[in-house]
Automatic annotation (TrEMBL):
SUPFAM superfamilies: Phosphoenolpyruvate/pyruvate domain (SSF51621). This is Methylisocitrate lyase. It comes from the Bacteria. Pfam families: PEP_mutase. PANTHER family: CARBOXYPHOSPHONOENOLPYRUVATE PHOSPHONOMUTASE-LIKE PROTEIN (AFU_ORTHOLOGUE AFUA_5G07230), PHOSPHOENOLPYRUVATE CARBOXYLASE. GO terms for molecular function: catalytic activity. It comes from Bacillus cereus TIAC219.
């Protein structure tokens, strides 16, 4: 699929009968597994990529390593790829321009960019400057504007809801195409946000978003795995390690064979 076709397809996936179920890859093998399972597109997980290379999440990983991983994911799948660039990894707009240039080389069709800065949120106007620049410099990019009011537990519930609604409207004016609100799980809160946000909404999968019908009823356009698949694999690896250390047999029924693994990566 040509880059222009991927760009167009990714946008249409946010305006279809069924929600976009977006898995998040951390390397080539995870991207290929997701593609094999007929997903429509793939996101990246900054947490998964960082942990794979020995770093915690939160822009602790050197930018070059993050970009290399995004490039590797993109070139190992035929699907549209949206990159998690956290807060932008940029000290200034000129640094951000370099990142956007690299993403275009990798044929990345979209980005997640967040307003959370560890323990606080960027000021709205400061985030709008970043979004304005991205939209002007890379108008083809689908901007998934992440609002971290719930993720960082800032303020009480009423204040959080109000802050998200205000930020969503302002980010829309600055070119955001979708609003990502990680940390929201309560059904009633989701309904209030849905009623007051015009743009498509992206949420992380949770116990209240556990079926396609449930997601459609709430009118959520996009649901992401985030780092949960990566963390699930590490959890299983921990169990495997414990079993093996005790000298117990590791049951391989249902596992990828060595031959299947090589075919997957071919």
């Amino acid at each position: 699929m040509e880059f222009k076709e991927k760009i167009k397809l990714f946008r249409t996936l946010h305006d279809q009968n069924n929600p976009l179920m977006l898995p998040n890859a951390w390397d080539a093998s995870s991207a290929k597994i997701f593609e094999r399972n007929d997903f429509q597109a793939i996101g990246t997980t900054s947490a998964g990529i960082a942990a794979t290379l020995g770093y915690p999440d939160g822009e602790k990983i050197p930018l070059e390593l993050m970009l290399n991983s995004i490039s590797n994911i993109s070139k190992n799948t035929k699907l549209p790829v949206s990159a998690d660039i956290e807060g932008g990894y940029a000290a200034n707009i000129f640094d951000l321009r370099k990142i956007l240039n690299e993403l275009e080389k990798f044929e990345v069709v979209g980005i997640n960019i967040e307003d959370g800065r560890g323990t606080y949120l960027r000021e709205i106007n400061e985030q709008k400057v970043i979004l304005d620049f991205i939209k002007a410099y890379s108008p083809h990019l689908f901007i998934n504007a992440r609002i971290d009011s719930f993720w960082l537990d800032i303020g009480d519930l009423k204040d959080r809801i109000k802050d998200v609604i205000v930020r969503a409207e302002e980010y829309k004016k600055s070119g955001a195409d979708c609003i990502f609100i990680p940390g929201v799980k309560d059904i009633e809160t989701i309904k209030v946000l849905r009623e007051n946000i015009e743009l498509p909404i992206n949420l992380l999968q949770s116990e209240n978003l556990n079926s396609m019908q449930n997601i459609k009823t709430l009118k959520i356009e996009r649901v992401s795995l985030g780092s949960s698949a990566f963390r699930n694999i590490l959890t299983n690896l921990d169990k495997i390690s414990s079993t093996f250390k005790q000298g117990k047999l590791l049951h391989s029924n249902g596992n990828l064979t060595y031959q299947d693994l090589n075919l997957l990566m071919d």
